[in-house]
């Protein structure tokens, strides 16, 4: 009896606590209680105030005030502030929250709680940072650095991206309106995630590179047959990072000095791309010497300018390329872009035709497994022109794949296949890549063997997704 009584009391206590909490949340009284709590806590600590005025004593604008303003208005806690202004952004659908005058906003950094007050006194605006004295020594310096980084990042993302191309030895600027995004590119999802996180880690690693004494730059090589999405991927990288793109046309560069000058004129946090590097090397169609090119890739000539720069090179094949050009440090990440497999095909069908399943899919899968293939560009094109009828689109792809399988380089898409088989045998010197060697076999072996290989694969019932061995990303 006593135990039941005890249990009832216990249950009642828990239930009452639950009701009180519910009441506090529903009536927003919880915020009042929290404020009282913070008020009491404030009284028992000594605080330090730092003022960031909008103008300095010479009436010049204080750049740091602008940064703080961008930072403070980006904090999630702005939504909890008692009074905020709403403005429309660049796009009419954008709404921007802005702290009103004399409002306080909280922030936390490295476990310390700080607050910002947006003051206006005699028509002069300022932000006042309030932090506990005991936290000041520990967090002030890194916190101010954090504000710099975050606001620079936000500003970078807000601006309209530019594409710059070199004509003679000058950059010409155009608006960069390429809509590509990494998700819309048919490529192994794991590989895409790895690249995304590699990029995101890199842009946050300025201090790490500084500590190592290395130029803060990262180089990527995108290689693979024509029409597999290399250029689209570069555009997607630029959109992901909100970086301007500098497209270096090496045939327009008159010598090493001018290549250096072009590099000097690029801005920090930009994407510098050299497309079809293998073509320049093979055809010797540039006046830049190989040492000029290596120095450009290393960024020695402008190491102070390597401020967060990302270099991207594309090639159809690494065959015949001097290994010094591709060595670790010069090219940090190698990404292979393969011809279409069934997984990429499904991803294209989903984005181009809005079709995730179709009765013709098993037939398409069988043809892919027999070794027939086409580039994503070709398949995308067939889907695009037949987008009003998914069945027609799939039938035309089946016909094209079958004609590829039968003819050796002839037929409607023969030109692409010729270039496919002309694409390189693997660079056998790079042993790390051999780990993912399946892809290479698929691109270089004769069609008869590919068919046999496809049949073998059919028999072994490869699990979906394992075909992604075709992709490789080598972190060096
Ligand atoms: N993997 C892919 N996913 C989605 N679309 C693709 C893919 N590959 C190519 N495409 C489409 O095909 C077209 C050509 O692609 P892109 O120019 O990126 O190929 P590329 O690899 O740069 O070719 P090249 O080596 O000839 O320059 C683009 O319109 C793109 O949308
Ligand atoms: Mg391209």
From TrEMBL:
InterPro entries: AAA+_ATPase, AAA_N_dom, At3g28540-like_C, ATPase_AAA_core, Mitochondrial_chaperone_BCS1, P-loop_NTPase
SUPFAM superfamilies: P-loop containing nucleoside triphosphate hydrolases
Keywords: Hydrolase, Magnesium, Membrane, Transmembrane, Transmembrane helix
Stretches that traverse the bilayer: 6-24
Catalytic activity: ATP + H2O = ADP + phosphate + H(+)
GO biological process: response to stress
Name used for this protein in its record: AAA+ ATPase domain-containing protein
Organism, as annotated: Fraxinus pennsylvanica
């Amino acid at each position: 009896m006593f135990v039941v009584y005890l249990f009832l009391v216990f249950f009642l206590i828990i239930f009452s606590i639950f009701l009180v909490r519910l009441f506090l949340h529903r009536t927003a009284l919880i915020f009042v209680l929290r404020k009282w709590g913070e008020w009491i806590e404030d009284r028992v600590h000594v605080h330090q105030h730092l003022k960031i005025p909008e103008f300095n004593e010479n009436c010049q604008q204080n750049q740091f005030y602008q940064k703080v303003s961008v930072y403070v208005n980006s904090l999630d806690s702005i939504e909890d502030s008692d009074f905020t202004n709403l403005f429309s952004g660049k796009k009419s659908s954008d709404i921007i929250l802005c702290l009103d005058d004399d409002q306080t906003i909280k922030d936390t950094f490295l476990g310390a709680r700080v607050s910002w007050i947006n003051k206006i006194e005699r028509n002069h605006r300022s932000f006042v940072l309030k932090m506990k004295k005991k936290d000041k020594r520990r967090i002030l310096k890194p916190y101010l650095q954090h504000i710099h980084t975050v606001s620079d990042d936000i500003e970078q993302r807000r601006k309209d991206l530019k594409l710059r191309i070199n004509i003679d030895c000058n950059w010409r600027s155009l608006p960069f309106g390429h809509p590509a995004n990494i998700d819309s590119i048919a490529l192994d999802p794991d590989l895409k995630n790895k690249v995304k996180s590699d990029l995101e880690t890199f842009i946050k690693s300025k201090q790490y590179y500084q500590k190592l004494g290395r130029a803060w730059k990262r180089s990527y090589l995108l290689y693979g047959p024509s029409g597999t999405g290399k250029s689209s991927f570069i555009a997607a990288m630029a959109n992901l990072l909100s970086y301007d793109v500098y497209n270096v046309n090496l045939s327009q560069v008159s010598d090493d000095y001018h290549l250096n000058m072009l590099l000097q004129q690029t801005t920090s946090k930009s994407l510098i791309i050299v497309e079809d590097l293998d073509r320049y090397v093979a055809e010797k169609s540039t006046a830049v010497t190989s040492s000029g090119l290596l120095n450009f890739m290393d960024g020695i000539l402008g190491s102070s300018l390597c401020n967060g720069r990302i270099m991207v090179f594309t090639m159809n094949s690494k065959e015949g390329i001097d290994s010094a050009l591709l060595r670790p440090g010069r090219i940090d990440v190698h990404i292979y872009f393969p011809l279409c497999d069934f997984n990429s095909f499904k991803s294209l069908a989903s984005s181009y035709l809005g079709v995730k399943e179709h009765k013709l899919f098993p037939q398409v899968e069988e043809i892919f497994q027999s070794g027939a293939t086409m580039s994503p560009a070709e398949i995308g094109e067939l889907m695009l022109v037949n987008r009003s009828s998914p069945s027609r689109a799939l039938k035309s792809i089946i016909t094209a794949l079958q004609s590829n399988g039968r003819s050796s380089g002839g037929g409607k898409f023969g030109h692409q296949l010729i270039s496919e088989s002309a694409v390189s045998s693997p660079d056998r010197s790079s042993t790390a890549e051999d780990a993912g060697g399946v892809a290479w076999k698929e691109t270089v072996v004769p069609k008869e063997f590919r068919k046999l290989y496809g049949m073998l694969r059919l028999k072994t019932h490869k699990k979906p997704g394992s075909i992604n061995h075709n992709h490789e990303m080598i972190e060096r």
